[in-house]
Amino acid sequence: MAVHLPQPKQLRDLLADLLGRDVTLSPSPPFAPGPDTPATVAVYVDDSLRISALIACDLALSARAGAAIGLVPLADAEAAIGDGGLTETIAENLAEVLNIAASTFNVPGADHLRLHQVHPAGPPLDPQVRISTLTLGRREDLRVDIPGYGSGILSIVLL
After folding, report:
1. For the whole model, what pTM was predicted?
2. How far is CA 102 from CA 45, 76, 77, in A?
């Protein structure tokens, strides 16, 4: 079996349902988290706890999606972006989105994945996790526009 790379339409539908907004996605250059580009990284594992996929969200999308799902005011999301890290509430909200996003990997005939860990934007990323986000090959890099909240970058990386 292999890991399924979620298609943009799957992600758009999931995000639109979760956020209750008509989210749009468009292709983006590959996103590379680093010391000056904070990111939230969700780590997904298979049934034998092997890390199989990552979803990385830049700070802008982390704050905006985490705020949008919890109906947190846009000003709070913008403040988190300005501060360079997520509040506890926004981080928890985003972790819920990323947990539900595991469903996009789980299609018939593919390995079953589940959320293992979320590294919220702000603190330095574990170097191994950061390096894994730079993997080329089976990945999808997307700009996500959330009406009323703004946009950011989301990358799905299969390992």
Report:
1. 0.96
2. 10, 26, 24
Using an 8 Å Cβ cutoff, are 153 and 142 in contact? Answer: yes
Q: What is the Cα Rg of the chain in Å? A: 14
Q: What is the CATH number of domain 8-158?
A: 3.40.1550
- What's at 109, amino acid-wise? G
CA-CA distance, 147 to 18, in Å (whole number)?
Answer: 13
Dump pLDDT digits (tens) for 26-70.
Answer: 999 999 998 889 999 999 999 999 999 999 999 999 999 999 999
51-58 vs 139-146, strand pairing mode: unpaired
* CB-based burial label for 27 (10 Å; 0-12, 13-18, 19+): exposed
Identity of the residue numbered 103 = S
**Chain Cα centroid distance, residue 86:** 14
Q: In angstroms, rounded to a whole number, what is the distance separating the alpha carbons of residues 15 and 77? A: 17
Counting Cα atoms < 13 Å in the Cβ hemisphere of 101 gives 34
Sheet holding 24-27, edge to edge: 24-27, 139-146, 150-158, 51-58, 39-45, 114-119
- Chain centroid to Cα 153, Å, comes to 8
